[in-house]
Structures are given as structure tokens and as C-alpha cells.
Predict the structure.
Amino acid sequence: MSVALEVRGLVKRYGTHARPAVDAVSFAVRAGTICALLGPSGAGKSTLLRVIAGFERADAGSVVLGERVLADEGTWLAPEERGIGFVHQSGALFPHLTVRSNVVFGLRSESRAARSARWQELADLCGLAAFAGRYPHELSGGEQQRVALARALARRTDLVLLDEPLSNVDPLHRTALGEDVRRILEISGTTAVLVTHDQEEAFALADQVGLLREGSLVQLDTPERVYREPASPFVADFLGHATFLPGRADDSGIATEIGVFDASRAHPRGAPVDVLIRPGDCLLDRDADGGAIVESAAFAGEHWIYGVTLASGRRLRCDIDAVPHAPLHPGDRVRVVPRSSHAVAFLAPER
Amino acid sequence: MAAGLLAVVVLLPLAAIAWNAATPRVEVWMHLVRTQLGGLAFNTVALLLGVGALVAIIGVGLAWLVATRNFPGRGFFEWALVLPLAMPAYVVGFVLLGMFDYAGPVARLWQAIAGADARLPDVRSYGGVVIVMALVYYPYVYLLTRTAFAERSASLIEAARGLGLQPRQTFLHLAVPIARPAIAAGLALALMETLADFGTVSLFGYQTFTVAVYRVWFGMFDRVAAGQLATVLLLFAAIVLGLERWARRSARFSLPSGGAAPTRATLGRSAGWMATGVCSSVLGIAFVLPTSVLVVWSARALADGATIQPLWRQAANTALVGVGAMAVCLAAALLLAYAARLVRSRVIARLGNVALLGYAIPGTVVAVGVIGVLAGVDRAVAGAADLLGVAPPPLLATSAIGLLFAYVVRFLAVSYLPIQAGLARVGSALDESARSLGASPVRLLTTVHAPLLRGALITAGVLVLVDVMKELPATMLLRPFGFDTLAVGIWQATTESLWLQAAPPALAIVIVGTVLVLLLTRGFGRTMLGPVARAGAAR
């Protein structure tokens, strides 16, 4: 598949801050796919999105959409000339226009019939037919976001940018809206870049997830690979609960206090490393001679969440499926059994 | 660029006053200090303290009642208590004087009851001035504080009651401190009006700086001394403004938003009717009574053969300068607001803020400053004409331009604030959305901004109109010879104690003012703003 959006060496600096908000970011998004930019607040994700949209001017770097250069050393296209759809966090619907008028706002140069036809298509696609004559304030947050998405798609733009599209929607409807957004983008074949600080949102929506930290893109890969093969402890920690157990790399693998793991990466022999353990990576065997003690037990529906103290005094979180399982209680002695010998390890920082 | 120029133009009269202060005339000052400065300063401070205290008590008390208690007529009083804002203080003042005059109805009633020798306490006193001003200016505090009580602190007040605080403790220890910024803002507005007032104090023969400037100007034709006195008045305005900033200093509380509307405690039968009584008395004395008296007097004045001719002329003149000032103010405010939005330069923002100080500056001071500037221009023009050997053009200083200039300097803030707030509501996300949808800047203005700003523009225009209509001292000092407005008509009649003749123009001002205040506080939300207001209400 062809590359739709290519960003190269983008730098954006605000005022006299020493650290750029966006620091030499490069990435490409293939046509028809969805890319999520994920990171803590202040990581520069929204700035990056706004530079691509043309709301902000980059200090260096280029943005190319298909064959068109939108911005580089000598070029800068205004937002209205870029043909990029933008969905704001709050929807940013025009409060004085009906849903239908909002959606067709960008189709002014087209004939009445063309506008009407496009509205019909989008109303069907986004489930808006019933809202045509309503005003934005009469809609729920999720409905507003669907209108905003329809409005951004109306001009058949090659690229749609979404800034935290689900964050203003109540949690109950977030999953459903996320599915809607993904379906709408897929059916319309639109390339999309979205920004979020919620990893579940990123995983649910995107084909590719990019991790941003302090303005830099630290990893870009499929959701599964960034979760399973994080490029750094920061990525591992950001994408879910992570415990790092100290170990030592040798020929047979990496030895830790709960067992020996194969390393997915080559580490210098004898080097101290930290092994990433996710809550689902281990089972707990009831064992009166076990070296670990259950400290806390919380029932979470599908699974139990246990807090376990290892012999070394380190805390480990273990999520155990609730169904074929006799619950453990605080104080029970257990043995921690890794479910797989495969693990990710990082060279330990100097201690 | 244009915005910067505008700010400079607005600042010129203030600069002229400041120039006066920077170049003191020793002999003038010696004379002023010897004769009247001490007394004037004492009177002005006493007036500010008295009005401030009374306005705070009435305003905060009524706001608390209406926002947190249920009693018969609460819904009506909620908006009706704003109505005294439509009354110029000097109108309430002259109605009171007329009523308590030696031959007035109250005095006669009193003599009938207490005997022919009975004398009423003299209303031409400190107490009289303070009461009149407090009755007219309390709505500023009431309006701002009510909002603070009703919306912001509702959940906190409920939390306090859950913690076992008595209502009285909740009021003193929680509600009032939380509403402090609102109370301070309301008080500052009331005190600025007090400081700027010329009509009431001169009617009641109470000597303050505004009166002194006027007297020195017209009585002694001493513009230098008037200018020097004006600098002192400016100093007082700066102090009021500074006090307001100080009272708000750290008061940027983050208040929990949202949550359910507060449930108002329903007062018991007797307490409820007492609350109704308190609200009715304030509204009655400040609004219903003066208006009724004006109606009766106007009817009698017209029946006595007073011609309606001058009234029409005054009304037409008022409308002329009002609409003119409104147009200039709106254009200037739009320019400033857009400049601040687009350029985002600190310099522009600062200039804008300084230009807005005009509202805090008494009309008397503005007038003196405007004359200073225009006289300077006139001299330069005359000099140039002399050099070129042509006849000098008509003088600016005595033309309607000066009047318009003064109104704009004084009321730019009134039109700027609603427009700025309206523009702020049109968040930058809307601009960005429109642009990413391919809208040109022009289309953005016409299809998104114009409809969304309509409400703010109407509000701003109405506010300027009401203020121009009521403004007395600047009009008195700057009007071209023979140019009467309604306010001037009232003042001329009252200086000769011709109460009946003052009534028709006063009634006209009150009626127009009431309609506009009602439009702003009630009608607009539903009818004139359409979907935008509904959108706002839904948030």
C-alpha cells in the first residue's frame, strides 16, 4: 500500500523553552490505515497533530500528503488549502448551525444536489439521519463526535486528524463510539491519525501506535508489538501495569527469582537486566513452602487481582482468571510460576 | 496597528490629565489647599465609605436571599431587583428632594400629623446622598454576587451543611468568602459610579471633586485649576481600581462546576413574608415609588401647559449622540478584540487594558482631558491655517466631536467586555474547524463569527446607549452651546427646583432604561439570541 502521510524531521518550539514541544519527529502512515499517537500529557502529541493540520507552523521538517508537499523549508499551505479533516477534542461543532448544516459546511462550492447526496451518504454511514435538524447542544457527547467526524469526512479528504476523539464522551459509551469511529473510517477508506493518552483507545482504534515522550517518537509499531515488545521501560510502563524484576543474562537465558527466561534481545553476558512482567504473565500455585506471600486480593469480575510479595521483598501484581480458580487469601503462601519462558528485558540502569 | 493607534487615541485625554498632574501650578495648588482641598477629600472619602457599606449590605443580603431561599415572589424579585439600575441617581435624588421639599407632599403630610411646626430631617445631607446612591447602585453588587451564590458555590454550600454548619455560619464563613471576588467587582463598579456622580451631589449641595471641577470650570472659568482638581479625582479612581485588584488578589479559586442546581431552603411562613417585605421595600423605594412619582409629575407638568417641544428636541439629541457613540464604540471594540485575538501580542493586550480604564474615570475628568487634547489640536490647526493664510476651520473643542470623543473614552470598556467575552466563547477550535473545512477568513467571519457574536453586539450596544443617555457631567462640560439632551434638561430644571418640569425627560430616560435592562436580563436569553443562547444555556 502506498504511503499517504509522511512527516520528516518535524520540530516545533514554543517561545524560548529549551526543549522543543516536537523534537525531530519522523513517521509515515500508509493509505487507508489508522495511526494513533500515544503519550502522557505534555508529550507533544497534540502539537504534532496541529502542525500537520497547519494550525501551527513547524520550525523545521516537512509534511507530505500523497504527492503534495504541505510544508517544508520553502512551502507552507494554510489549513484551508491542505484538504485535511480535523476532529477536535470537544467536537467544535458550530453551535448556531443544525447538524446537517454543520456536516455540509465544507461543501459550499458543490451543487445543492451534490451536497444533499453527500449528506445522505454520511448520515447513513455515521447514523445521523435522525439528527438532521437538531442543534449541537441537543446531542450527547458521542453524537456530537460522530457529527464532527462526518463533517471532517464530508470533503472526501485524504487524511483525517482526530484530537482525543473519545475523551469527552462518558466511559459507558466510549467503547461503542470507538468501534463506530473505526468502522466509519474503514468503510470510507480514510487515512487517519489520532492522538490520545489512553492506551485502550489507541489499541482499539489503530493499526499502528506511535509512542511519544518529551516531543520524541520513541516507538511506532502495531498495538500488539508495542505492548509485547516495548522498546524501552517507559513504553512498557505507559502501556499497562509493569513490574521490572532484576536478573542477570547468561548463556542459558536470564535468571530471576521467579525463574529463567529467554531473552528476546541479545544482552552482553553477565549484564544486569530488568525483566518486564505483566500482570497476566504468571500463575500462582498454592504452596506451603512457596517463597511468596499473598498480600492483597481483589475481585475484578473476570479475574482476581493479587498483590504478591516475593522472597526478596519485591511486590508483583498477578491477574488470575476467576473461573477455574479457588480464590487465595491474604497471608496464603504461594509459588509464582511464569506462564511463558519468553520475556522482554532491558539493560538495567547503573545502580 | 490600527488597534494600537486606537488605544493611543483613547489614552490621549488621560495623558492630558496626567500632564496636568506632572506640571503642578504651585500658586493654584496653594490656593486649593487653603480653601477647599481638605474638605473635598474628606467629603469624597466619607461618601465612598458610606455608599460602599450600604451597597454591600443591601446587595449581598438580597443576593443571598434570592439565591438560596424560597419565599413568596422570589422568582419575580430575582430579576426585578435589578431594575433600579435603569434609574440615574440624580433622578431618584430629585424625586426625593421634591417629595421632602418644604411644600412637598411628605412634608405636608408630616405637618398634618405632627403639627404645623414639625420639621422633617433635612434630606439635603450626607445621609440623604448616601441613601440615594446606595439604592441606585446596589444592583451591581446584587447581580454579580447572586450569580456567585447561585452557581458557583452550590455544591460547596451543600457540603458545608452536610458537615453540620448552621445556615448563618455557612453564609459568613463559606458563601461570602467564596463570593468575595464577585462582591469586590460589584463594589468597585458601585464606587466608580459614586465617584463619577455629579448630578446627585450637586443637587444635594454635597461638595465633592466632581462638583468642584464643574464650579471652578464654569464659575471661575479657571481651566487650569479645574484640570488640577481633576487629577485628584483621577487619583481616587485609581485607588478604587487598586482596591478591587487587591481584594481579588489571590481569589482565583477553582470552584467545582456542574452538579445539580442548588435546592433553596423554603422559609417559614412569617420569615418568608418578611423576606418578601424586605425585597418589596427596596424595590419600592428605589424604583416603583420614584417611577410613579415621575408619572404623576409628568402628567401634571403637561397638563400645566409645559410644551412637549423641548422634550422632543432633547430626546432626538440624546438618540443622536447615543447612536453615534454606540456605533463608534462597537467598531472600536471589535477592532480591539480582533486585534487581541489575532495578534496575541502583549503590547496590544496591555494597551487594550489601559484603554479600558476609561470606565473607571469620572466623566468630569474625561471631559477636562478631552478639552485639553482638542484645544491643543485646535491651536495647531489654527497655527497651520495662519501660516498658510487660510481661514481657520471651526473649533473642534466646542463641537459635537468632543462629546462623542468623551463618550467613547468613557464607555469603550462597556462595549469591549461583552464583545471580548462573546469572541472568547467562539473558541479557537471553531476557527480551526472552519479553516480545515476550507473556509476562507472572510467566510469564517460571515458564517461563523457574525451569527455567534450577534448577541454580544446587541448587549454591548444597549449598554453604551443606556450609559450615554444617563451620563451627565461629560455632557454638561462638552456639549456644544444650546445642545440639550434629556439628562441636561433634567439637570437644568432641577437646579431651579422645577421638579415638575424635570419629570418628563426623567421619565423618558427611566422608561428607555427599564426596557433595555429588561431586554438584557430577561428577553434576550430566549428570543434575540436564538440557538446561540440556547447553546449557552445548555452548557
Q: What stands out?
A: The mean pLDDT of chain A is 88. The longest helix of chain A spans residues 171-187.
